[in-house]
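re: ur question from yesterday

yeah so i grabbed the chain u mentioned. its 584 aa long if i counted rite. heres the sequnce exactly as i have it in my notes:
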Amino acid sequence: MKGKPTIFSKVMILIVLLVTPVLILYIYTNKVSVNVVQDEIQSSSLTQLSFFLQQFDTTVEQLAMFPGILGSDPYLRDFVEHRSNKPYDRISEQTRIMEKLSLQSVSSAWTNDLTVYLPKEATAVSSNHLITYNKEDVTTYAPLRGWIYDPTTRVEARQPGARFIRGIVEPYGATSLSQIKSMIQVSFSVNNVTAMLDQVKSGGKGDPFFYRFGQPPIKGSDSDSEMLSGLISVLDSQRLGEKGSLVTQLGGKQYAIFYVLSKQLNWFLVDYVPVENILAPIKKTNQLFYTTIAMLLLMSILAAYFLYRNVQRPIRKLVQGVQRLKKGELSARLHYQPHNEFDFLFERFNEMAEQIQDLVEHVYAEKLRLHEAKLKQLQAQINPHFLYNSLFFVINTAKLGDTRAVVAMSQNLAEYYRYTTRMEVQNATLREEIKLLENYLMIHNLRMQRLQYVIDIPESMLDVQIPRLLLQPLVENAIVHGIENKSGDGMIHITGKQQDHFYMVIIEDNGVGISLQVLGELKKQLLHPTDTEVSCGVWNVHQRLQYSFGEGSGLDIVSSKLGGLKVTLTWRRNEANDATHDCG
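ran it thru and got these structure tokens back, copy pasting raw so excuse formatting
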């Protein structure tokens, strides 16, 4: 029944199929609702900003018209043209002009200063009696058109702080001080803008401010400076149109930003609102809906559980018993009592298992003897292979006069033959195998003077039982066919891992490696015996793992990141090889 849906799973699938369309429809509807709400909020916010900005621009436009209105005044023209050179008349004209400037200035709801500059006379007449003639004001602002932002603080201004300035010169287009006959200038403080922003914020909607790239923002008196700093960083990185919106992340929250361009000042009026505030009613509805769905699922699961307990669980126990028989556990019996119609099936299963055990036990014993004979034959094939390589090494080392290496190899051979002559015990612990590898690698290190190795096996694996001489042929192949054919230092990494139900030992080297084509052929040869030296060793190890530990065990060969080959030995974990596994 493996892979087939159970009754419980079928019921759960049915519940999911019933709930899924409802969830999909609701999610789609919710998404559409969120989009509609966001669009409406965006449209509403932009409309409100545009309405406020229209009022703002109207006031600014009214101020922008003051210089033009005054420029056409006949008294002001007489004063500029010097039509009366008498001192008394000039003073009277100047007084009359100051009155006109003051009357024109107070006609606006915003505090402002109107000033007439006469560069040739170095004279200034203003609605603000504190303002005097300043040549720099004329030379700085005369060539400029439109409203100019002046961030400096003027002590003579009606209100301290930055201001906006606009003026006209006569004759029109004059730029140098010698060309300018007169300049009429109007200015207003940003405090007027701040007060207007405070009025909007007092209505409880948003926190608007004016923004222009490269300039400090014009904000309300109690605006959040830290939040505005983050918003300005976002706006600086965007290419803004005349109006629009964007969404950004600040302080772990999402904010919707709305902006509209002032055609008078060429600054953006910006407002922002947390997205969660926009979607709060929808989120509350979502929570209620999902709570209802969760309760419905819970009740459905409870109903399915009663079906599972009375039908699915007995079937599962029966399937588990069959699976245990399939794996060879002939002593498997069912002790579960469902107290229903399944009692009869369980009794008949136990009787059948007992009969099968009696019939199979003597056949299985014969099969074990056959496997034992095959394992001994495979191990016998490995002994000459290792002996040939070792004896050639002893001969070559003796010729070089390296007695330490000869003694070490001889000791290693003695230990090796003590292993192989004990045919009645074909297994050893991983600790013993690693000790053998350390002796073997030390001998090669004495001979090559350029071989390094790292062995990293978890302590929990060292007492695991494996076939003898399982790792040494692979290390030998790595040295002889990989590292000896390469110039420079050689490196061998031996690591152990425990993964799910398997043990793994990985042997890597930085040798010359092999091509992908040769690697593919070598993998194919794992399935069949061969006469070549390399494939013979790995084939023997692969077959011994499969015979000893069964399905899922064996070798895997790939290219290593070190440059050579990476050989992975894998064998199944069980109580036998964890403690006293012995196939000999």
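noticed a couple things. DSSP finds 14 helices and 16 strands in the chain. also The longest helix spans residues 7-71.
anyway ttyl
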